[in-house]
Amino acid sequence: MSTLIACCCCSLLAAEPPKITVSKETTYITKPLTEDGLPDYRRAWLERLRKRKVPASENGAVDYWQTVGLAMVDEKYRQAFCDELGMPTPPEGGVLETVSGDKTTRAIAIWYLQQTGVDVDEESFAQYEAAHPNAALAAQLWPDDLETFVATNRSFAAHQVPPLVEWKTRNTAKLDRIVAAMEQPNWYAPPPSLCVAVDEDPTMMGLGTMDQRSVANCLAMRAQIALGQGDLTLAVRDLVAIHRLSNIQPPDLYLDLVLFNAARILSAAPVELQLVSRSDATDRQLSQLQQLHALDVPPSRLPGVLRAGERLYGLNYSLALLQRHEEVLQTLGYFCDDPAAVQRTRDLLELPLDANRFLRGVNRDFEKQIAIAEKSNVRQRLAEIESMNKDLSDELVATTPLQELSLQQRADALLELLWLIQGSSFDTMIQGEARHATHDQLMHLAMALGRYRLANGEYPESLEAVVPRYAARIPVDAYGNESFGYRKTDNGFLLYSYGLNGVDDRGSHNDMNILSGYTAAAYSDQVRELLGDDLPGPGLLEGYVPVSADDVAIRVPLIEVPLPGDGE
């Protein structure tokens, strides 16, 4: 009997996987094809995006990239990207200098050391830097790192941080050009890696996120400086540009953009919330900012993304996985921190399997994800994902080595492993989109509260007081909660959603260490003072946030990074 089993096993191990069938059910697209007769997902994606292509003279992306430069674009894609946009290569010396770049970082480090009594200048700083390696990053100069500081929650006078004002002066024309580019009606800029005729990276991991947060931070910093100089008009213009930058990309690229767009908009939020409490702001300015934030939760972008770019990316990745490309195998560890799951996937790929069955399963999973994403209730979406994950986990536990010797069983096991390795990103995107939509609603209502204060001299006692003059209604949030938490405080207000758990956690969030709207670990003395009656007790703030708390909150006034010259 054992001899018979061994013979059957050897026969199965020797079986060749069937040839990949190009069809709607397996490969999703049937043209264009590569030289080996398989779908060319990169070219299909680019052809879809090219439907939005406009002449260079009418393309806001050309002015944008000419000003920003191509430092964030892989060198092997740069020329093809320029050719696709019909623009010359940006001059290396004439592009925007980011506020967190080496030149400004170094200048701030030297300046701050001088403020603290250290005898240092440009020439001697190199020696000081060698003795104190973190000086260049200014890590020891503020309670948190410089990247956080340059997106800080405050404005400041010119004499308080001269290097930043000098940065603004050097880059004014370039920032103006970026703002003007955002005001143009047309925008065409496909991911650079799609623009090359042949890419040796089969994973499309080089696609990039087109992450423009550094540009958003530059605009936010200039807006902060403008507030310090009393130029609210310039500040508002830069804030509007940040929102346009965040929404300029096509809505059907890939899942990462959902979160990266939100991250860029969040760089504007601290400046906007400062305007809410400023006495020199106007109702027109707050109304203009209010219109940038949706009162009602917009339709999810996820179904469109899953039908378009994300699906092409996913099928391309799956096909490259079946072809055992080493570059693809190396990415498994990037997606998953479970070495056993990664190794099991590698082991499966060493054996023959039913490739067409696997690809049909990938397409079915995309259809399931689309159906889940189309549900309006976020709690229901997340519950169905959790159920899907549990079912797959149970199936994997029940799968024995003997079952894996079947071509069909191996295909199913590979599909399950791939979902467990990559599926968590779908959950993250759903939660991220819901959180961003709710934060947008909070910002809309915060502007309404600011407009109420301008008209009445103080914030209202209840949120309902802003309806209907300053806000059309109190909306239902992205989690289905029909009301928001609001409290007028001695120095401002606390406004929050009850989050996914639907419980009033008084504006606290455990995972983010937020206590009643403030980050509990930041500048503890200042937070204690700002919290007032919300302070839970003596001692450190950490540890007071309820374990289950998940409220989405904003609070005015903001925590401010301490600077030299405060109080002068």
Automatic annotation (TrEMBL):
SUPFAM superfamilies: Pili subunits
Top-level lineage group: Bacteria
InterPro entries referenced in this protein's UniProt entry, alphabetically: Pilin-like (IPR045584)
Protein name: Type II secretion system protein GspG
Source species of the chain: Aeoliella straminimaris
